[in-house]
Design goal:
About 65% of the residues lie in helices and about 0% in strands. By secondary structure, it is mostly helical. Helix 3 crosses helix 5 and helix 11 runs parallel beside helix 13. The model has no long low-confidence stretch (mean pLDDT about 95).
Length: about 220
């Protein structure tokens, strides 16, 4: 284990709750182990670790890979937030590592966490990479990459590229995959907070799965 993760592990062990871990594991369909640390406590631990010092960015790939090797899900959450904390050091060549993070130990919690903490800010920093990278993801056969291409703009509000969002949603609209249908609905529901008229018109004019429509229109009267 990378030395930066050792105090993280000690803190996780100290705050572990076996009963909550059991519940979290069941909630995630028994795919991951957990320490059973609730989000506010985990964020407190993360804050304390960050305040004690951040690693060299050269160590980030090794830290990410080691965090992904750990069975407890809290390590992946920590690693995602660490990567987000290091945004001033991000370079375009980070893409392969981000793809590994999305496609390994994939589930909605990690993939959506990455979209919020990393992908959105990354593509704002390097807008020239948006179409090249996200189109490749949208047309891939990995539905977690597809989900990421649809979700990365969810916090962009009035900066949302609606043309890109439309293209990516329509390309995936025929998918029977629950996590794609949900991503379509969620991305539209988020953008509806900024432009409900656009979302309503889009839903009316395009063939979308019923689940996506329900999610998209949930907060539109």
């Amino acid at each position: 284990m990378h030395h930066y993760l050792k105090p993280v592990k000690n803190a996780f062990i100290h705050h572990a709750d076996a009963e909550k871990a059991k519940g979290a594991k069941a909630y995630m369909r028994n795919q991951f182990e957990f320490y059973g640390i609730q989000t506010p406590v985990r964020r407190m631990i993360t804050k304390e670790i960050f305040e004690s010092g951040l690693p060299s960015f050269q160590d980030i790939p090794a830290i990410m890979k080691d965090a992904w090797l750990q069975p407890e899900r809290e390590f992946q959450y920590f690693a995602i937030e660490l990567m987000g904390k290091m945004k001033k050091d991000w370079k375009p060549d980070l893409i392969p590592l981000l793809e590994e993070m999305i496609t390994q130990k994939s589930w909605w919690d990690s993939v959506d966490h990455i979209a919020t903490w990393i992908l959105g800010p990354f593509f704002q920093k390097y807008p020239e990479l948006i179409k090249k990278i996200t189109k490749k993801w949208n047309h891939s056969d990995n539905f977690w990459l597809q989900r990421s291409s649809i979700m990365f703009q969810k916090a962009y509000r009035d900066k949302t590229d609606t043309g890109l969002l439309s293209d990516y949603i329509n390309h995936c609209a025929g998918s029977t995959e629950f996590f794609i249908q949900k991503a379509i609905g969620w991305s539209l529901r988020e953008y509806a907070k900024t432009n409900p008229k656009w979302v309503l018109t889009f839903v009316q004019k395009n063939q979308l799965p019923a689940l996506s429509k329900r999610e998209a229109l949930k907060n539109i009267e």
